[in-house]
Amino acid sequence: MRNKTRPYREALLDALSDPIEAEHYLNAAISDSLEMFLKALRNVAQSRQMARVARKAGINRESIYRATSVTGNPTLDTLDSVLSALGLKLRIEAASSLSAPASISSMTSGAIHRTTPAPMPLKELSQRFYRPEILTPPTPQEPISSRDLPPAYVIVETQKEYASIP
Asked: pLDDT (tens digit, 9 = 90+) per residue, 76-103?
């Protein structure tokens, strides 16, 4: 009788040979942690045969294994060349709410179309974030000397007055 199931690893590597599946897999992994991303990158590279990926990236196969290990710390150049060899690219997005939130306008044939507000003109944006108190240097003040201070008894009496106010 034929076995109806197959090992998970085999099914995973088979699925990751699809570029769209690999893209979603890597994005989910990087949102979790750097370690998960490196492990996911290794899985994607293995699904496309590591030796071929290394040859297309122009680096040694062992270097890819080392860079994607648990203690790996790949350079941006290595990461870029491996992702390029896999037919993927690195993209940066804003992490905070400073970016305009996208609203879902419609769903057509399973794809989500996003609409974002028009970008704010540069002049309006610069006026919005203009803070003259930050940009203006402080004015130099004369050093305080002991002759400029009131006598000690005046200071004590003033402190007593302020202390008695409810």
From this structure: 999 999 999 999 988 887 876 554 444 4
Q: Is residue 50 part of a domain?
A: yes
Number of structural domains in the chain:
1
Cβ contact 17:51 at 8 Å: no
* Residue 47 domain boundaries: 8-85
One-letter identity of residue 86: L
Q: DSSP string of 105-162?
A: EEEETTEEEEE-PPPPPHHHHHHHT--HHHHSPPPP-PPP-GGGSPPHHHHHHHHHHH
- Identify whether 131 is part of a domain: no
- Quick one: which H or E segment has residue 65? helix 61-67
Which residues, 6+ apart, have CB-to-CB distance to 108 below 8 Å? none
The whole model's pTM is what? Answer: 0.56
Which amino acid type is present at position 56? Answer: K
Tens digits of per-residue pLDDT, 108-147?
Answer: 444 444 455 555 555 555 555 555 555 555 555 666 666 6
Whether 14 is covered by a domain: the verdict is yes
Among 80, 91, 74, 65, residue whose Cα is nearest residue 34: 74
